[in-house]
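Intended use. Records like the one below are meant for learning the mapping from a protein sequence to its folded structure. Do not use them to infer anything beyond what is encoded.
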Amino acid sequence: MLKVLVLLKRNPKLTMKQFIEHYENNHVKLGIKYAPKIKHYSRRYLTAAPYPLGGAPQEPEYDVLTELWFDDRKAMDENAAALQQPEALAAITADEAYLFDTSKNRLVIVEDHVTDPATLPANQKK
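Structure written out for the chain above:
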């Protein structure tokens, strides 16, 4: 499984509520329609909070982390090619121009490393 995170900042003309509503009710539908190789598609909306070691909440650099899963790199590349088709490209580009500050869009491939705290020596029963 290949996992991709897309970090996105909302268009400053939109409130967070408007941003979420449009993303969920419009942009998601475009993704599903034009990106046939996606196996998992989730959005994690971010809200500023104080850092626990001190400091006031700061506006996050991004407003949403979008997570996409593909079977493999080939499926991700095929998906990218599908998005370049004229109809898909026009629809998604127009929606992204409304929804995002596209100058801040970032896409990264994720390499998972998971730790179960119960398996750490400090948490094991003696």
